[in-house]
Amino acid sequence: MGANKKIMIKIIKDGPYRVTGGVPLLEQAIVTDDNGNTRELIDIKEYPRQNTYILCRCGSSNNKPYCDGAHRKIGFDGSETASRRPYMERAETFESPDLKITDVYELCDHSRFCQRSGGIRNLIQKSDDPEARQTAIEEAMICPSGRLVLWDKKTGKPFEKEFEPSIVLVHDKQKGCEGPLWVRGYIPIESADGSMYESRNRVTLCRCGKSENKPYCDGSHWMTREQKLEFRKKWGLE
């Protein structure tokens, strides 16, 4: 019977994520280039396939990535504060002659893939250079949180990698910590209140329990409050 359950991530009130439908669970690590810029994710392991499993959301489980009930012991507050408005309703747009970026700042998980080679906004302004154009495409498609989407203005289509529905446990080697849950392939996410979040090809969910934009990651696994405030001021979010 369990094998017939549809693919879904259900957020449990003040508790974990319940994953159904036999979603693959993998672990990948962020690696950097010679200049220290994050470049790609490499495979570390794949967990045994299960029809249903429960992932820690509070960050205190002694059986990570799985829940062991620690959320009850620590009185975890898992209140969901993220906007439910669709991505495109919130996105700001930045354009060059043949490319455009849509950007929803508050979704940023601070994995820093958009900073290589001077940053993606700088790169799209040089999109007549094949190398700059290709780097911009690579940076956009690997942005785990889906904050950034790059579009071809000629076709009107986004540059997106086709992901099998899957969840990746991100390890941030550069910051020396565990990163978010990278949810790929349009997996439906159901709130604790029963409503649905917008299904997207790429989103990152908090698994440290510290995000101020739950259920999404906001970089709190490595950023201090001061660093987050600096980021918010930079992007006019205050």
TrEMBL record:
Pfam families: Fer4_19, zf-CDGSH. One of its GO terms (cellular component) is cytoplasm. Residues 40-77, 190-227 form the Iron-binding zinc finger CDGSH type domain. Keywords: 2Fe-2S, Iron, Iron-sulfur, Metal-binding. InterPro entries: CISD (IPR052950), Divergent_4Fe-4S_mono-cluster (IPR010693), FeS-contain_CDGSH-typ (IPR018967), MitoNEET_CISD (IPR042216), UCP009180 (IPR016548). It comes from the Archaea. The keyword Iron-sulfur applies. The keyword Iron-sulfur applies. GO terms for molecular function: 2 iron, 2 sulfur cluster binding; metal ion binding. This is Iron-binding zinc finger CDGSH type domain-containing protein.
